[in-house]
Amino acid sequence: MLRLGICDDDSKFLDLLKIYLNEYLTNREFEYKINFYSNPKDMIEENFVFDILILDIEMPYLNGIQLAKKVKEKNKNVTLIFITHHDDYLDAAFDLKAFRYLKKPVEKERLYKSLDMALERVKKVKKKVIVKYKNSENIIDAEKIIYVETANRGLKLITTDGEMRVVDTIKNFKNKVYSDTFIQIHGSYIVNLNYVSDYNENTVFLKHNNRIYETYVSRRKFIDFKNRFINFVKEDKYRA
Question: Is 78 in the same domain as 138?
Answer without folding.
Answer: no
